[in-house]
Every structure is written in structure tokens, then in C-alpha cells.
What we know:
70% of the residues lie in helices and 0% in strands. The protein is mainly alpha-helical. Helix 1 crosses helix 2 and helix 2 (19-41) runs antiparallel to helix 3.
Amino acid sequence: MHxxxxxxxxxxxxRDGDARAFESLYRRYRGSLHRYLAHQCGSQAFAExxxxxxxxxxxxxxxxxxxxxxxxxxxxxxxxxxxxxxxxKNAPEIATRxxxxxxxxxxxxxxxxxxxxxxxxxxxxxxxxxRATAQRIDQALAELPAPQREAFLLAxxxxxxxxxxxxxxxxxxxxxKSRLRYALGKLxxxxxxxx
Length: 195
């Protein structure tokens, strides 16, 4: 029954006391939210900590939840704010870059992205090739300026539209569109031999 409900309806059901609705939301966003955080902060340990903090925020905000935006926009906005808080505390120079980028000045990001393991059922050669490709993609993502990488990950991992990316990152639609366009162009150029 829960699987056919929209995210917003699930959150409203959770607000009204249905714990299984929360479990459904958690399952839906488990992969994309965690990957977004891991790619943004470059550390599995920090990503896991931030991931848990995002869900704690969701739990704590349930009583006041109103579906004023798509749930995906809302939860990725929470994640964006947790990342900024994390950077302010642990790496103020990165937080400053995000703040400058949100005012229109793009800055290069220095986040490190971990390796993505290939499926175990593949042959050793296929495993090696897939790992090399994943490393190339991770490196290309790491070389993007942080705001461009964030726009790309929100679109790809979060499935957010330009308007939703703008809402999640507190920027304009045009800024989000530019960031995404530049990110895609840089990724195409960096990975052109893989395409």
C-alpha cells in the first residue's frame, strides 16, 4: 500500500503517526541521499554521520511538515544545509566557497570522492575495467567546482528539476541551470573517450 503513495503523502502519513510510511521514505531515499552526501563530502564516515543527521532532522520536523514543495526538494535542502554546517565546522574555506558561489562567484571544489566498487559477480577483467571507469568518473566529478558538482548530483542522484535544485541550494533557477550546464560540459570533455 505504501509503495504507491507519493513521497509527500508518505510524509503526511508519518506526521500522523504511521511509522511504516517513514520506512518507505527511508527505503526510497537511502541510496540517492547517501551517494549525494558521500560525493559531496568525500568521506564515508562524514557522509554516514551527515546522512543520519538528515534523517534525524526529518524525524524532528515531522510534526510541522507541510507539503509546500516536493519531498525530494525538501530533504535535499536539509542535506545541503547539513553539508554547509559540516563545512563551517570542519573546513571553513569550503563553506566560504559555497557561500561565494551562491552569491554568483563560482569557485573550484576540492572534495575527494571515494572509489565505487564494481559488482562481485563479474570477471576479474570486467571488475578491473569497471573500477577504472568508476575512478575516472569519480575523478572527473572531484575536479568540478563544488557548486557545479552539487547541481549535477542533485539532478542525477536526487532526480531534482532545475527549480527544485534552485530551491534546495537557495539559488536562482538560472544559476542552477548554468551550474548544471557547465558541469555536464566539463564531464563530457573529461570523459569523452568513455562516451
